[in-house]
Amino acid sequence: MKRAQGFTLIEVLIALVILATALTLGVGSVQRTARTLGALEQRLLAHWTAENAAVEEQLRAASATNDENTPGEPVTRRTTVTQYGTAFVVASRYTPGATGTPGALRVEVAAQAQPQRALVSLELPVPARP
Question: Which CATH number do you get for residue 21?
């Protein structure tokens, strides 16, 4: 008696189990990649926000009179900024230097959903005014 051509039910089930396992692993990999890209996008937007805040503080410091920026007296600001639909909390601290000495600027940016966890932190010197 001749054996029938084709696959048995067991062979088909084994092939389906292998295929389902491979697809499950592939979906998990895609999910991890999507999470990583989301976090990268958030950090990039936070960095842009920090750079913008740093430039604003530098301009504010450059245009301030000597009376407004007493050397050693830090100026702290906390604002909320939205970049591309994402809300960030920006905390900046500017410490003016004495005449002829550069000041120091620190800018931290966190997501509004987690304000205690800074995504970006910048520390910059602010050029001294004559």
Answer: 3.30.1300
Instruction: Give the residue ranges of DSSP H helices in 64-101.
Output: none
Give 15-31 pLDDT, tens digit per residue: 999 999 999 999 989 99
Domain containing residue 71: 9-126
- DSSP secondary structure code for residue 4 in this structure: P
Place of tokens 């004559």: 130
DSSP state of 127: P
H or E element that contains 92: strand 86-95
Model confidence pTM above 0.85? no
Rounded CA-CA distance 34/41 in Å is: 10
**Cβ-proximal residues to 45 (8 Å cutoff; 6+ apart), any chain:** 83, 84, 86, 88
Reply yes or no on whether the pLDDT at 65 is more than 70.
no
